[in-house]
Amino acid sequence: MKKNTSPFYNEMTAPDGNIRPIYQRYDDWLRHHDSAALERKGREAELLFRRLGITFAVYGEADGAERLIPFDVVPRIFGGEEWRRLETGIKQRVRALNAFLHDIYHDQEILKSGVIEPEQVLGNAMYRPEMQGIDLPNQVYAHIAGIDIVRVAENDFYVLEDNLRTPSGVSYMLENRKTMMRLFPELFAQHQVAPVEHYPLMLLDTLRESAPPGVEHPVIVVLTPGAYNSAYFEHAFIASQMGVELVEGQDLFVQNQRVYMHTTEGPQQVHVIYRRVDDDFIDPEVFRADSMLGVPGLISAYRAGHVSLANGVGTGVADDKSTYLFVPDMIRFYLGETPILSNVPTYRLGLKDDLAYVLEHLDELVVKEVQGSGGYGMLVGPASTSSEIAAYRARILDDPHNFIAQPTLALSACPTLVEAGIAPRHVDLRPFVLSGKEIRMVPGGLTRVALKESSLVVNSSQGGGTKDTWVLED
Amino acid sequence: MLSRTAENLYWMARHIERAENTARILDVAHRSALLPLDIEGTEAYLWYAPLNITGCAEAYESRYGLARNDAVTHFMTFDAENPCSIYSCLKAARENARAVRGAITQEMWEVINATWLEVTRRSQAVTEDGNADFFDWVKDRSHLFRGVTLGTILKDITLSFIRLGTFLERADNTARILDVKYHILLPRVTDVGGAADYYQWGSLLKSVSAFEAYRKIYRDVITPSKVAELLILRDDMPRSLHACLNEVEAALSQINGGSGHEARRLAGELHATLHFGRIEDVLMQGLHEYLTDFLDTTAQLGREIGQAYLSRNHLGRFSSMSKVA
To answer: How many other CB atoms are there within 10 angstroms of residue A88's CB atom?
Structure first.
């Protein structure tokens, strides 16, 4: 048996070369299937995705070509027990984040107590003074959260970032499962894989619970920027799975602080909007005046409590990379609990000592923009050339406050089908958390995989792929 | 239903139907081109027909000059710059479908998406397949789309808007084919009843899948008045004007609310003239005049439908509604 001497945690194979118990059954199956057979399945999957039109558009590419996110046919497997611990930790984190948002848009206890310096919140570009004093149903701001998690050892998980604005990817979680069940029915017969298919129903329940008080049968819609948005497939998918209308800004209008949609039978009032349009574009009267995607007057209706937005306005202040640092403090402050999941140690380049240390160690660290996303604009020190590092250093010095740095984590790796056969590739995990009257999650999430050998960047915009994520019921 | 959704459903169906009809028109032109015609300037004469039927002769001439087989065929099949080409229709249908993915079934989306992927492939590949294969394929995909639609979708107003689009487009097309062919096929009075007519009227019937029906119903030589009767007045003929208006009227009656009174009235009136009309009267009025009137009325009906259901300008209606509330 080949020994596994790599420095990172391999989720399938232990350092002594033995298959970890959770992957035992899968490994047995794998022994009877060569990689040519798996490749055939992979091509079949690609055909399925292409036919279903599960594509995304890449920003900055000429013809707005639709591309497929590569799908890996090897599942990523969690045991029931390790999942439960993760789930508890994730829910704890989301509870604290929602409590934080409610607090800073009301009494700001956490600032008064000195746990977080006021400037950090009030001076943040994502803080929305328009939200001050507005009461939201269930005091929930982030109804749908995507918490990005990486693993470095058997029981060692870190939260990489919280996504509280319009996190995407859930359609891939669902379609990946559907595809796997179609391609490998025998694997599902052998494994007790916990289902995820009820996610849209849970989302619908969450949105119903979030309706303005007194509305018994809320009309719910999904608001998309339109068919040319990179995540349009997902918007349409979610709307149809929930059986609600998919609307664009032009389909809605506001009258007497109430929101209506244009229908073939005239105007119909809308009570809950699951919006996939960013704050900046949602209402040209309040935010960016040049936005064609939003609805003029929407914020006035929202502030008057006649319509609910999911996610709420102003959540960006809590998922920003400089606020991230304080989430463990929030858990202690609001919940009085010990954080179950750790943060990645983070340097704030706005602090003098941190800046000095980071500039010394750029070749070991990952440096990110505070408000960046999608893996753009970051520096992965160990994977960069000295001229790339020098160029990035100049950007940092230009505006140190805009950057944070973290040690390069040894992300865990999962078996993945690549050209040379099955080989370990680094992965992360994005589970989706729904907050209404209660917090709900389906067992699983979207596993993203860096398909290039030794690459740590899993973003689909940077050549990453996805896997089906299995939680085994014991 | 969201007005924008209704609009996309309606146009999705119209674009698919238009692609099919264009394939039918081209198919006939190709068949006719094989016949030994002795009319002067035959080739150009023949190839103007598909351009005139679809109303894109001017756009064609500005780029290619005189009508020729290969240029017209390319212009109307794969030319991405021609908004009436089969390629453009299938692309537009797919864009409409993509905008309302949530409102149509998975199966319908897959048919439209796969059709688009295949036409893209065919437009790029040098293929050994003849034109006839391609036209058959387009017709097949359209049949498949209609079948899948009827076999999978809930019978609510989603289906009503789709059928509205399909049959208004089809009525428009049948009328255009008849109108253009009427002129072309009767260039000289002395020709009537000759062998050339048999083939020409025969190919017209085939273009709307009515050849077999004709023989079954009339068991007689092909005459222009019977062809006109079959394609205008017989409601058991699926592509006749009467059959199309049956469907249009039925679809409109399924769609409640809005301000569709004028659309419903117009459709009802047009339907009644077909229902109670006699072919002798149509021919007396003049076939061309009759068809021109018909095309004007369906265009007007299309505008009324657009205003009543598909437009987003409800504010006028909204203020009257809020007074009641």
So the answer is: 12
| DSSP 8-state symbol, A130 | G
Q: Is A313's pLDDT higher than 50?
A: yes
Predicted pLDDT at A374: 57
B114 touches chain A (CB under 8 A): yes
CA distance B318 to chain A (A): 7
Is some CB atom of chain A closer than 8 A to the CB atom of B323? no
Estimate to the nearest angstrom the gap between the alpha carbon of A394 and the chain centroid: 30
Q: Does A255 contact B322 at a Cβ distance shorter than 8 Å?
A: yes
For A320, residues 6+ apart whose C-beta sits below 8 A from its C-beta are A124, A126, A370, A371
For tokens 């045991």, what's the residue? A79
Given a contact cutoff of 8 angstroms between Cβ atoms, the answer to whether A432 and A173 are in contact is yes
Q: Where are the alpha helices (DSSP H) in B34-85?
A: 42-53, 57-64, 69-77
DSSP H stretches of helix in B208-260 = 211-218, 224-232, 241-254
- The pTM assigned to this predicted structure is 0.82
Residue A237 pLDDT exceeds 70: yes
Question: Looking at CA atoms only, how far is residue A337 from chain B in angstroms?
Answer: 42
Q: What ipTM, to 2 d.p.?
A: 0.72
Residue numbers in A near B4 (CB within 8 A): 247-248, 250-251, 262
- Indicate where chain A has its CATH 3.30.1490.270 domain(s): 345-407
B198 part of contact set with chain A, CB < 8 Å: no
CATH architecture of A345-407: 2-Layer Sandwich (3.30)
- Answer whether B257 sits within 8 Å of A264, measured CB to CB: yes
pLDDT per residue as tens digits for the range B88-113? 999 999 999 988 888 899 999 999 99
Report the pLDDT value the prediction gives residue A6, as an integer from 0 to 100.
Answer: 66
Average pLDDT, chain A: 91
> Which helix (H) or strand (E) is A221 found in, with range?
strand A220-223
Interface of A with B (CB under 8 A): 50-53, 227, 232-233, 236-237, 239-240, 245-248, 250-251, 253, 255-256, 260-267
